[in-house]
Amino acid sequence: MSVPTFHNLSFYSDPSANVQRYKDLIKSFESIYHDTPDFISRSPGRVNLIGDHIDYSYFSALPMAIETDVIGAVKVLPGSNEVVLHNTDPAFARESFVLPAEGQVVEIDKSKFSWASYFKCGYIVAQKYIQEKGNHQQPFNGLLILFDGTVPTGGGLSSSAAFCVATTMAVLRANGVTQISKEDLTRITVVSEHYVGVNNGGMDQCASIYGERDKALLIQFQPKLEGQAFAFPVVKPNDMVFLITNSLVQANKKETAPVNYNLRAVEVAVAAEVLAKQFNLKLLQDSNLGTGQLRGFMETYYLQEKGVPLWNNDIDQGIIQLNGVLALLEKIFDSEEKKSGHFYTTENTAKVLGLSTEEFQEKFLSQFPVRYQYLKLYQRSKHVYSESLRVLETLKLLREQTDGARFLSEFGRLMNESQESLSSQFETSREELATLCQVALSHGSYGSRITGAGFGGSVVHLLTTDKVETVQRELREKYYKKQFPNITEEEIQAAMTVSKSGLGTCVLEKTDGSWDF
Ligand code: ATP
Ligand code: GLA
Question: Cα–Cα–Cα angle for 347, 260, 435, nearest 5°?
Fold first, then answer.
């Protein structure tokens, strides 16, 4: 399935609400560059409904693409080697760079961090794709681009993935790649942010690319990376909705990576190897770090110790197997000391793995540097396996076509358990996020949880339409006004959105030389 091209705004649920934004984009482009754009590249943000911090252990997640997005108007300049970037958001000042000589890949200056670094992430993967395909005889074209984004940055809704994917699509299209499959675009973009030093999984890019209107997505990593759209049950008499509330505490994933995001990725990779060591199992070294990963441990354990493969489509078997591995954790982390979170120093862990400290550092800490005193292996692996179990339990509810009322209460419970696990085992929550959950839950939310990386960002709530107003009113008074005494009504409204699922990445072209919006 190829990434689609449109000639109008019909992919939005309310095209007319977006007309002015696109007209403004073109007008600003023309006034900045004194030229007209050739096409527009677009990719949306996402909200993850359940299954956080398990994608980099290759377990499935259930997000949906949302209607807020990043759009970039692009003018292609054959014969030029300059790329110029402008943004409608004044926080992102003008940037430009010169393309390297043919055959070389764009470089990211690590000493000077800016939004252009994220642009270059998207650029590099497009460049490599074109070079790998071997059908690029010409030098890369110069570009003039104006971006406009409605996904809040650092808000847990994947503005970075939306921006990087829109960039990659723009670079591909500007250099002659008019067709690319969703599968290929996902495969190349999942690693894009690694170039700025964030060791993320692939959920965000996959959700942004595979998004469908009125559908959520099951993102699978194994046996292969793909997104499958599915619909939620119909709830009556009031429709089911997801309310997204931004805590307005910005989570800067890149800046805090050594103690937050990247550290979690190291902890789960080390946990997989420690678990494997107990059974003398050799794991496939296929994590982002080139080590074993937790799904890989589980798969190898079940095959070699029990003689059975991991569940495929048999959700009940998956539930049994995940419960089995959760019980196994209790046996392996068999002392209070190992469970305490104060045992796995670098030295202790290296010893458990039969490695020297230097070998341990080389294997786990050399690619994405992290800082820690102790690795919390028990807590992190418990979250990963229990969260994966919750994803399967949600799929079971969906597959059994559970009636609306039961779905609300069961899925709500799973969302709340996920929040509890993210808070106590994975430690990605914080007081502000907990307050958003508590207030909403005591006024009609069935389930409330952090969405995405956490450490700030947004909370997603499961509601019915009749409860939205009350929950918003309570959050206005008990969270936003208390937390930010000078906040305006407009800012509060922008922080709370009832999310509609939106279409994934697409390109917009003119019809007979003019824009049709
Ligand atoms: P999360 O991954 O937790 O959902 P996020 O993706 O919104 O959060 P970060 O991973 O911190 O946040 O990435 C934000 C960075 O992405 C910004 O600092 C900027 O460099 C880039 N970015 C995002 N949106 C835009 C945009 N509209 N224009 C330019 N750069 C953007
Ligand atoms: C960020 C990452 C994703 C995923 C989530 C947590 O959004 O980019 O790959 O790990 O955090 O689920």
Answer: 130
Nearest atom within ligand 1 for CA of residue 453 = 3
Position 17: which residue type?
Answer: A
286 is known as an active-site residue: no
Nearest to 456 by CA among 196, 198, 152, 46: 152
Q: Give residue 237 CA to ligand 2 midpoint distance, Å.
A: 34
- Residues constituting the chain: 517
Rounded to the nearest 5 degrees, what angle is found at the Cα of 103, between the Cα atoms of 100 and 106? 40
Ligand 1 neighbourhood includes 452 CB (under 6 angstroms)? yes
Report all structural domains of the chain as residue ranges with CATH numbers, in order of start. Answer: 5-231+501-509 (3.30.230.10), 261-425 (1.20.1440.340)
Mutational test site, ligand 1, from 85, 159, 204, 255, max ligand atoms within 8 Å of CB: 159
28-53: per-residue pLDDT in tens?
Answer: 999 999 999 999 999 999 999 999 99
Over the stretch 234-286, which tens digit does the pLDDT of each residue have? 899 999 999 999 999 998 888 899 999 999 999 999 999 999 999 999 999 99
- What's the rounded Cα separation, in Å, for the pair 391 and 409? 15
Distance separating alpha carbons of residues 494 and 138, to the nearest angstrom: 45
Q: What confidence category does residue 135 fall into, taking pLDDT thresholds of 50, 70 and 90?
A: low
Which pairing describes strands 506-509 and 5-6: parallel, antiparallel, or unpaired? parallel
